[in-house]
Amino acid sequence: MSSISPTLFTFLRELKENNNRPWFQENKALYEQQVKEPLLQFIADFGAHLPEISPNYTAIPKATGGSMFRIYRDVRFSKDKSPYKIAAAVQFRHIAGKDVHAPGFYLHLEPGSVFAGCGIWHPESKVATKIREAIVDKPDTWRAAIGNATFRNVFQFGGESLKRPPRGFDANHPLIEDLKRKDFIGTGELDEEIVCSDDFLERYVNLCKAASPLMQFLTEALALAW
Hints:
The protein is α+β, with helices and mostly antiparallel strands. The protein has helices at 6-17, 21-26, 28-47, 125-137, 139-147, 149-152, 176-179, 192-195, 200-210, 212-221, and strands at residues 88-93, 104-110, 113-120, 156-158, 184-189.
């Protein structure tokens, strides 16, 4: 049975309508019960299956310093001063990863926007260069990673791209559109009913297995153990 239930989305909808500290403090026990605890349980449950995918990725059932994203927004540089995120999310990163920009498996839970993700989002310049160099060195492996039917049936490969070819790479390279990518991510659309279903843990494990060729390529491109 899934630890995620419709009450998680009910709480997030109410939070969206009452995104302020007094309301959240008054309802913090509900947040703990309906969002935090179910997600920590999901992380722990998924962690038992993660070695089937890769022994070098981690599932840490902690809300701070673990696989779960904090509910609190960083508003220091934002015009939007709403103190809380209106989505819940988890990321299962490589053991060498320090933050959200590391390669990882991802799950996003937001009313009206529920999806699984994989890959690496907004890597810093030197990391992106390593990935691009790996694409040039192993073009067939790259094509197989993002073009195989198992991956394509589940994920859409996307993210932001540069307007011009990156410095040091052939503008006429047959994979130039991939070399121009600023993100190397796949997303698979889900919905509330799916993530609240009894078999969602198994389904999510299979989603991550489908992402494994891409994840292995990115991991090894960064000289990390898959």
